[in-house]
Amino acid sequence: MLTSEEVASIFQQTGAMLLGHFKLTSGRHSDSYFQCAQVLQHPEHTARLCRELAIRFAAESISVVIGPATGGIIVAYETARALGVRGIFAEREDGVMSLRRGFAIEPGERVLVVEDVITTGGSVREVIDLARRQGGTVVGAGLLVDRSGGKVDLGVKREALLVTEAVSYDPAQCPLCRQGIPAVKPGSRDI
């Protein structure tokens, strides 16, 4: 098994742990950000991390692995490959997580939901709900990074390779905004 120290080392080596002023997907602001794309561009690191997620859920008889677009696409694919099952992704359509591109979850299929990083867990919860609406049995959530310090309740078994408690702020209360430090939206051309 990979230790959290080994996982942190991979993130540090690849420049995936950033410091600054960031607008998170959740709408909150933070002084740190995990740019998982920096890790996921390296197939050897991606395979190792996702194989670890697969090991942690190997006893669950998983039929399909699903992640939210865009951060969970590669993680879903590579974890599914390690498990020898299908890997699909959900994406927003009119603001709602949906299955598109002919993807489907059959009633009774055992589903593992994966994501690169969570802060509030909102996208993962939406994918869990989507899988259940399709008739799937969600057996767990596998995360590369849990920025909530393990506090977010996803309602299913969860495994995170790295658990950290990142500070995040409501934009109206953000001390970085008050200092006039420009906020960057990760995933934009700036990062």
Shape: globular
Number of domains: 1
User: In CATH terms, what is the fold-level topology?
Assistant: Rossmann fold
| CATH architect. name | 3-Layer(aba) Sandwich
Total helical elements: 6
Order of helices and strands: HEEHHEHEEEHEEEH
Range of strand content: 25-35%
Helix content: 25-40%
CATH uppermost class: Alpha Beta
Tally of strands: 9
Largest sheet: 6 strands, mixed
Mean pLDDT figure: 93
Low-confidence stretches: none
* Spatial order of the strands forming the largest sheet: 5-4-3-6-7-8
Describe the structure.
The chain is an alpha/beta fold and 191 residues long. The chain has one domain (4-178): Rossmann fold. It is 30% helix and 29% strand. It has six helices and nine strands; from the N terminus they run H-E-E-H-H-E-H-E-E-E-H-E-E-E-H. The strands form two sheets. A six-stranded mixed sheet has the order 5-4-3-6-7-8, with helices on both faces. Strands 1-2-9 form a three-stranded antiparallel sheet. A hairpin with a 5-residue loop joins strand 1 and strand 2. The longest helix has 14 residues, at 43-56. The radius of gyration is 16 Å and the shape is globular. The model has no long low-confidence stretch (mean pLDDT 93).
What tags apply to this protein structure?
191 residues; alpha/beta; Rossmann fold; 6-stranded mixed sheet; 3-stranded antiparallel sheet; 6 helices; 9 strands; 29% strand
